[in-house]
Amino acid sequence: MKKILLTAVVMLASVASYAQQAVGTFTLQPKIGMNVASLTKCDGCDPRIGLAAGVEAEYQATDIFSVSAGLIYSMQGNKAKEEGVTLTTKLDYINIPILANVYVTKGLAVKLGVQPAFNVSDKQKLSGGKASVEAEDVGAESFDFSIPVGLSYEYNNVVFDARYNFGVTNIADGGDSKNSVFQFTLGYKFAL
Fold it and tell me: What is the domain range of residue 28?
């Protein structure tokens, strides 16, 4: 019976210390990675592969809970192909992810939050054969909003983060397409 109680106490003690960082610490995490982005309501379209880079700050509130906020440059959009012609939509944003992080085991966090974003560039390129035409300011909304959901794993301050951003707002006035982005980044946490 004593062995069972001792085992239970050891297990509970290990459950209470899931986070990599100490309670009450602030960390800063530069990160870089890639997006696999597409737009909803575009059947047969291919994703746009683009850069995701920026920084996130995190506050470790308890052993299993933290809050983070960031500033991420994010290349989004998609490619539509039809009869030898390709239309590439390039939508670049500054995303501001605000996330709740719950550590389910040491170093492994589940993330959920909100993400306002501001469009910094919207272009379309039409190409086919030997001809190519590019247009800027093609009518994308200047503000975007999404719900990020993801996982991260931290080992020795190196963080691999994978998340999906569910687009909530339409990318253009009068349209019904939304951003749909898988984002994979690698970062390093510095304690402040």
Answer: 2-191
